[in-house]
Amino acid sequence: MKKGMIKVSVLYPNGNDKIFNMDYYCNTHAPLVAGLLGDALNGFTVEKGLGGAAPGSPAIYMAMGHMYFNSVEEFGKAFGPNAEKIKGDMVNFTNSPPVIQVSEVMI
């Protein structure tokens, strides 16, 4: 990704009572979101949390999805009309409310 792009991160916190279906997320949810966001989406990645900073400690986030856009405005125009459909699909893969971060790529 290049400098100035917008990165929208969706972080799913880990916890004893939290579940996450990575297969569904990668093979169903991510393609659904990509299709809904269309050409505004420049790319995305999915990451699986493996561990924390201390050896043997659990990952803070079970999973992370990162999406890239040219601008916050393009993200808003693409996401806004599809927000309910995207959020509505979350019950199919997790019970962990996500943390959302919007960032600007600097390097």
Keywords:
single chain; 107 residues; alpha+beta; Alpha-Beta Plaits; four-stranded antiparallel beta sheet; 3 helices
Folded structure, characterized:
28% of the residues lie in helices and 27% in strands. It has three helices and four strands, in the order E-H-E-E-H-H-E. With 107 residues, it is an alpha+beta fold. Strands 2-3-1-4 form a four-stranded antiparallel β-sheet. The mean pLDDT is 98. It has a single domain, classed as Alpha-Beta Plaits. The longest helix is centred in the N-terminal third of the chain and has 16 residues.
Helix content: 25-40%
Q: Can you give the mean pLDDT?
A: 98
* Helix and strand composition category: alpha+beta
CA-atom Rg in angstroms: 14 Å
Instruction: Note the total helix count.
Output: 3
Q: Describe the largest sheet.
A: 4 strands, antiparallel
Order of helices and strands: EHEEHHE
Q: Indicate the CATH class.
A: Alpha Beta
Topology summary:
Elements lengths: L5 E8 L8 H16 L5 E6 L12 E9 L2 H8 L3 H6 L10 E6 L3
Antiparallel strand pairs: 1-3, 1-4, 2-3
